[in-house]
Amino acid sequence: MLKGKTAVITGSGRGIGKAIALKLASLGANIVVNDIPSSAYADDTAEEIKKLGVEAICVKGDVRSKDDVDNLVKTALDTFGKIDIFVNNAGITRDGLILRMSEEDWDMVMDINLKGAFNCIKAVARPMMKNKGGAIINIASIVGVAGNAGQANYVASKAGLIGLTKTTAKEFAKKGIRCNAIAPGFITSDMTDKLSDEVKAQYFSAIPLNKFGTTEDIANAVAFLASDMSGYITGQVINVDGGFVM
Ligand code: NAP
After folding, report:
1. Closest alpha carbon to 119 in 77, 159, 61, 166
2. pLDDT at 3
3. Does the CB atom of residue 157 touch ligand 1 within 6 A?
4. How far is the CA of 16 from the centre of ligand 1 (A)?
5. Is the CB of 17 inside a 6 Å radius of any atom of ligand 1?
6. Is there a catalytic annotation at residue 154?
7. Which letter, b or e, does each residue of 123-143 get, where b requires 16 or more Cβ atoms within 10 Å of its Cβ?
8. Atom of ligand 1 at shortest distance to CA of 215?
9. Nearest atom, ligand 1, residue 19 CA
10. 31-63 pLDDT, tens digit each
11. Is the pTM here over 0.85, yes or no?
């Protein structure tokens, strides 16, 4: 389905990003793994992907840095000649109630989750225009749609990412570039492993499908939005959350 395509996935050394990279590779895409310079996993992930019979490289860099992002895009283009799919997946949490949230925690989450995606969209838009099209997929969160006490910075960054998705879709539709977002619900990963059993139980009781999501559930939705099967879809947010928000 994606044979000969090139996909770049930020924050793909582990977690949801890694699952996305493996899924797109299993469908035939060549993969550029990105993660922060200190990542202990990114090189191994690229090696694992190569075993699926596609090409894969690892380009470390912090999405907050315009220079790092420009290098990521340039290296991908130098290696594969084009970028067809770009997934803004890198993201962090620094939770706390508003009255206790530090300016530093606010800034860090906004910088990585929102400005990082802006840096990447700005860098990849021109090469995609030159290539007469592309698919940008932003990994938002269901809390960016519904809000969540104790996550003001994270919620604001993900709600902002949804707004950025719609604006990107409108600005580049005529150039053949589609931009959509996925809003995952509670997905089993290192990010959610940190939550207390009490918080996990609260989430669980509110999920109609009666189970937590897997990284593969998100990867499947990305594969759809990355492929021509979603060719008439842009500017949308797909909730992948077991029915948590409807
Ligand atoms: P994760 O396991 O913490 O993985 C996040 C990845 O992003 C890691 O590989 C991390 O690198 C990388 N990263 C962090 N800061 C970066 C930066 N500045 N530049 C480049 N890469 C960076 O999280 P996850 O659960 O897979 O989440 C992936 C995405 O899904 C995030 O955007 C998150 O907000 C979103 N999401 C997750 C859930 C969930 O339930 N898990 C729900 C909704 C949305 P290191 O390995 O070095 O830390």
Report:
1. 61
2. 98
3. no
4. 7
5. yes
6. yes
7. bbbebbeebeebbbbbbbbbb
8. 26
9. 26
10. 999 999 999 999 999 999 999 999 999 999 999
11. yes
Strand partners, 86: 8, 136
At 58, the amino acid letter reads C
Choosing from 32, 191, 204 the residue with most ligand 1 atoms within 8 A of its CB, the one to mutate for a pocket test is 191
Strand 237-240 to 177-184 pairing: parallel
Distance of CA 133 to the CA centre of its chain: 19
Query: Does ligand 1 lie within 6 Å of residue 160's CB atom?
Result: no
Dist. CA 158–CA 152, nearest whole Å: 10
Please tell me the class of the 6-237 domain.
alpha beta
Q: What's the Cα-to-Cα distance from 221 to each of 109, 138, 180, 227, rounded to whole Å?
A: 24, 11, 11, 10
Tens-place pLDDT, residues 105-118: 999 999 999 999 99
Indicate whether 164 pLDDT > 90. yes
pLDDT digits (tens, 9 = 90+) for 181-193: 999 999 998 888 8
Can you give the pLDDT at residue 151?
Answer: 97
Q: Which residue has the tokens 């924050």?
A: 11
